[in-house]
Automatic annotation (TrEMBL):
One of its GO terms (molecular function) is acetylserotonin O-methyltransferase activity. It comes from Coilia grayii. Pathway: Aromatic compound metabolism; melatonin biosynthesis; melatonin from serotonin: step 1/2. Homodimer. GO terms for biological process: melatonin biosynthetic process; methylation. Keywords: Melatonin biosynthesis, Methyltransferase, S-adenosyl-L-methionine, Transferase. Residues 109-286 form the O-methyltransferase C-terminal domain. The active site is at H215. The keyword S-adenosyl-L-methionine applies. This is Acetylserotonin O-methyltransferase. Catalyzes the transfer of a methyl group onto N-acetylserotonin, producing melatonin (N-acetyl-5-methoxytryptamine).
């Protein structure tokens, strides 16, 4: 197998080590909830709904936890009458009694926000080019990056598409930090727009980028936002979703399964399959939906008005 230069520079190992944290959290959460004991005691495969009922936990959260445990090969999942049933493997984790604390929702102080923005920024040092060039975006001259945060994707767009301008649309506090710490005022092709994408009008653009935005929100909120994007989008324009896509059968990738579980504690959203994003896009009116898997953590979906 040939190794491209890009493969050599993609820090898979570091990313795997970062994933280790999420893996530990998943394992400890499953132990603390008694998932393995419950499945073992049942002596038959159980659905996510049955496990949730038995443990007194939410069905959605339990489904994600079981999915991540299956990805980690702590459980197996059997298909039965179109239903996924979880079965415990030969795993004895119940002796692990470490306490699991949930991560606080939201970002508070300036210092925390700056840390969050650096975190958001860091992954794009590695794979922004892959998502921005997953499709040829040359025809889109006016681009808005909704929830554009540190501007990493905006910068990559201006490099890849010299004929385009990009506006970072984000909450006022984030725009302030982005201007101060991340985007040089010398960069004349990047501008800022302070606003709330749920409450405020979206300016007209040829392309809207929503990178790691919809995974923060429920289907209802995501539809609300996509409806607004569709209304503001110029005819022939489009929307680019950048997300970690789950396989259609939910069997992986492990990173997306773990991220989806993480979203449960940090946001109201979840990671989705490409078909689920396609449904949301179609409902908003978008057509010609194309999916590009990059082979890295984040994939791209382009849809047109
Ligand atoms: C998970 S981060 C993704 C940031 C960036 N797109 C990326 O991929 O690095 C979500 C971003 O959406 C912004 N955001 C959240 N709610 C928003 C709102 N109502 N209006 C505008 N931006 C919002 C946040 O400030 C944050 O920058």
């Amino acid at each position: 197998m040939s190794v491209t230069k890009d493969d050599e520079t993609y820090p898979r190992k570091i990313l795997q080590y970062m994933e280790g944290f999420l893996i530990s959290k998943t394992l400890f959460a499953a132990c603390e909830l008694g998932v393995f004991d419950h499945l073992e005691t049942a002596e038959r495969p159980l659905s996510a709904a049955e496990v949730a009922q038995g443990l007194g936990s939410s069905e959605d959260g339990t489904r994600r936890l079981l999915s991540a445990c299956a990805g980690l090969e702590l459980l197996t999942v059997q298909q039965c009458n179109n239903q996924e049933l979880a079965v415990v493997e030969v795993v004895r984790w119940r002796h692990v009694t470490l306490r699991v604390k949930t991560i606080p929702r939201g970002v508070g102080s300036d210092e925390e926000m700056l840390k969050f923005m650096h975190l958001m920024n860091s992954i794009w040092n590695i794979c922004s080019k892959d998502v921005v060039t997953a499709f040829d975006l040359t025809p889109f001259k006016i681009i808005y990056d909704l929830g554009g945060c540190s501007g990493a994707l905006a910068k990559q767009c201006t490099v890849a598409y010299p004929g385009s301008t990009v506006t970072i649309f984000d909450l006022p506090k984030v725009v302030h930090m982005s201007r101060k710490y991340f985007v040089s005022s010398q960069d004349k092709r990047i501008s800022f727009h302070e606003g709330d994408f749920f409450k405020d009008e979206l300016p007209e653009a040829n392309l809207y980028i929503l990178a790691r935005i919809l995974h923060d929100w429920t289907d209802e909120r995501s539809s609300e936002l996509l409806d607004k994007v569709y209304r503001s989008c110029s005819p022939g324009g489009g929307v680019l979703l950048v997300e970690a896509l789950l396989h259609e059968d939910g069997s992986g990738p492990l990173t997306a399964q773990l991220y989806s579980l993480n979203m449960l504690v940090q946001t109201e959203g979840r990671e989705r399959k490409a078909s689920e994003y396609a449904c949301l896009l179609t409902a908003a009116g978008f057509t010609n939906i194309q999916v590009q898997r990059t082979g890295k953590i984040y994939d791209a979906i382009l849809a047109r008005k």
